[in-house]
Design a protein that fits this description.
Layout (H helix, E strand, L loop, with lengths): L10 E6 L3 H4 L13 H19 L3 E7 L9 H9 L26 E5 L8 H9 L4 E7 L4 H11 L3 E10 L4 H18 L1 E4 L1 H18 L1
Parallel strand pairs: 1-2, 1-4, 2-3, 4-5, 5-6
Length: 217
């Protein structure tokens, strides 16, 4: 169930890192088994959800990243990447293509660029949420076992309430990462961080509440 107090005026939709470096085939790395087929299959549904939520009057926030290169990243990420090649994820792109949004509508959205996994490390994002009086965050995006997970943990620790769109969160095709993400969706997130349900049920709930508010007015 969607929390009873969640309304369009205290909720924002957050789409995390739906950008070319995390979506497009050009940025896959088959040698390390980094493939984005499952992510690309999810993108049209996410795009439709963003459009529908905006039509209801909902607010949309998108995150991209700084160039994912050593000089732009914090010391803890760089240290990890230097010491463990399995974790290394520096980008070779220097032209800005990697950080462009891919396959989702951006009109009317507020955009923030982050330099860590957790979107809440961006103080401007936190300030914007405070100014909008947001208490509830509908979370979507990539990677479910990476930046989405870190953002849910970071935001929950700051007191935000999460509504997690389980069908609009994806990760790489790797079997182990898919299994981990499934565990997050079925066990960890619903028990520890927030309502975790399909996006159509989220949209239906907010559509009904929007109608109720119009009738009351």
């Amino acid at each position: 169930m969607i929390p009873a107090d969640a309304r369009l005026d205290n909720t924002a939709l957050l789409a995390i890192d739906v950008i070319r470096s995390c979506v497009h085939k050009q940025y896959e790395d088959p040698q390390r088994d980094i493939r984005y087929t499952r992510i690309r299959q999810m993108i049209p549904s996410l795009a439709a959800f963003i459009t529908s939520f905006r039509r209801l009057g909902g607010r949309v926030i998108l995150t991209t990243t700084v160039p994912w290169q050593e000089r732009y990243l914090p010391d803890n990420i760089n240290e990890l990447y230097r010491h463990d090649p399995r974790a290394r994820y520096w980008s070779a792109d220097t032209g800005g293509d990697a950080e462009r949004f891919c396959g989702i509508p951006t009109d009317g959205a507020v955009v923030f660029a982050k330099n860590s996994y957790d979107a809440f490390t961006n103080r401007d994002l936190v300030q914007a949420l405070e100014e909008m009086a947001v208490r509830y965050i509908i979370v979507t995006g990539v990677f479910g076992d990476g930046c989405v997970l870190a953002t849910i943990c970071g935001g929950f620790s700051r007191g935000y309430h999460f509504i997690i769109a389980k069908d609009l969160i994806e990760t790489t095709d790797d079997d182990e990462r898919q299994a981990l993400q499934q565990h997050l969706k079925e066990r960890l997130w619903p028990l520890m961080y927030g309502t975790t349900i399909e996006s159509e049920r989220i949209l239906a709930a907010f559509s009904e509440r929007s109608r109720d508010m119009r009738r009351a007015a």
